[in-house]
Amino acid sequence: MAAVIEIEGLRKTFRGLRGGARVALDGFDMAVEAGQIHGFLGPNGSGKTTTLRTLLGLVRADDGRMSILGQPAPESLPAVVGRVGAIVESPQFFGNFTGRRTLRLLAKAGGVPPERVETVLTQVGLRDRGNERVKGYSLGMRQRLAVASALLKQPELLILDEPANGLDPAGIREMRDLMRELAAAGITVLVSSHILAEIQLICDHVTIISRGRRVATGPVAAVLSGFDKGEFRVRVADLDRAAGVLTTAGLPVTKHEDHLVVADVGDPAWISEQLGQRGMWVAELTPLTPDLESVFLKLTAAAPEKLTGTAPEAAVPRQVDEAVQSGQIDLGEQR
Ligand SMILES: Nc1ncnc2c1ncn2[C@@H]1O[C@H](COP(=O)(O)OP(=O)(O)OP(=O)(O)O)[C@@H](O)[C@H]1O
Hints:
Helix content is 34%, strand content 24%. By secondary structure, it is an alpha/beta fold.
């Protein structure tokens, strides 16, 4: 599949007026392929906005290679900018203008046929509210108006920085549905966020960044499955006896107040059988599948500190996940 965004070894250090330096990007890699809804996740200050701003030519990188829609960025951005919609800064709209008038003006300024305005208003679900003044819009409606403005040009790629930030649950749900509809219409979507549960629901792929480095990337399910230890929560009346049976059978067991957590479970039916044969009836047997939240916290909290000397160098793993794969970092102990 064609890469819509490719970033390799991106570096950016911000230098303060008093000589201080802040490394925002430390040799960061990312690839987004056509058709993906790609989540770009990281804690506050991890480098997401700097990455997106650099990609769009708003910040100059110190080093690294980037391309958008197959063209080198930022040099060839003018050639592809008409195919990219981006909301990286919160757009400011005139409160006294209606949503429809705002979009008509933007369409005119951008040489977009005026008919597109009705199409994008419908796409973002604002058609019926288009004649209301923007100052009366909720934050969610303003965000959708911003997306509508980015859609005017019929982009192939939509880049959204924290689109769900500050929205209430209903607004987040609307934004999520909108992104899904856009992806179904064939638009590749890159969405940055620190709202993990949302990314898990919306996105099919994810790249996780921490302290300017990639710590994980891939299909969401694959990133999660790397952390799946085959754990089950087991509830029985006699916890000590059940723990003894399972431990003797070679399974790692952790005892909690009212349940056991058993790891390395291949077939859960085996647990029921073993305990049932001994007169212990299993009241609960639940798989403990990892969610993105716990994976994210583990990856971003500990891994980067352990990675030293991985500045871009030929044949040296630069990204934290590469270092994990090559055995430089053992995340197992973090789990
Ligand atoms: N213009 C700037 N001048 C100085 N430092 C900056 C500038 N922009 C970003 N930084 C610093 O670079 C680092 C990365 O910031 P960035 O905004 O890219 O992170 P982020 O992941 O987008 O965070 P958030 O989720 O809070 O928006 C932070 O330490 C930030 O303070």
